[in-house]
Amino acid sequence: MITIGRLAAYAGVSIKTIRVYHAKGLLPEPDRDASGYRRYTAAHAIDLLKIRTLAEAGVPLARIKQLGDATPESVREALHDVDRELTARIKRLRETQRRLRRLGSGPVHGLPPEVARHLEGLPGLGFSARWVAMETDLWILVYATHPELAAESFRDQSEALADPGLRQLYLDYDRAHDLDPADPALAALAERIITATRRRYGPGPLPGLDAPSAVPALIQNAVNAESPAWRRLDGLLRAQLVPGT
């Protein structure tokens, strides 16, 4: 005969958990002895281990109760379903683990070496710590969600920063973060960016605005969320560069 405390220790659960299982009808509650204590048997311990195993596999308690009342054949089929679901979950967890390990393996959160070098060099070009942190987060997000498009987007930005005139526009964009959205300086900056953009890309699709790619939109939406001034600047750019905006 086993006390509830020992039963909990054997099964690796808390006494509170056993009482919850009693309340939900999953584990039969034994009668009390002459001293007023409930005494459990080995059968209770085996049943409790089964319940704990199913619960840890993600089976809802209501479903576990149903299995307790099912025929042996139904139980076997249900357990096969649980096993398949658990196998799929393990596969997803392993993939998540691999991504986590990649994030910690590179110079900057698992990003390609050229991207890590780019980020490390931004402060030396005059960019703020805020801008560097934002770019780091954005490239991690882009490479994680759209790896097939990330390299081309990164190459486009790298080429822009290699041009002194375009780099100055990026720096001015960075410094516009704290401006009032109504500041005339934003309109002036937008005109300079529009002129440079048309000079660089011509009349065709514009990366970051009307190009058929999820990456520019992902980046711009994140940038706009950082600052009302940046959001206003994006609106000014779209009004001139994207027809129908």
UniProtKB/TrEMBL annotation:
Record key words, sorted: DNA-binding
Gene3D superfamilies attached to this UniProt entry: 1.10.1660.10
Alphabetized InterPro entries for the sequence: DNA-bd_dom_put_sf (IPR009061), MerR-type_HTH_dom (IPR000551), MerR_fam (IPR047057)
Lineage of producing organism: Bacteria, Bacillati, Actinomycetota, Actinomycetes, Pseudonocardiales
Name listed for the protein in its UniProt record: MerR family transcriptional regulator
Coiled-coil portions: none
Record organism: Amycolatopsis eburnea
CDD domains cross-referenced by the UniProt entry: HTH_MerR-like
Molecular functions (GO terms): DNA binding; DNA-binding transcription factor activity
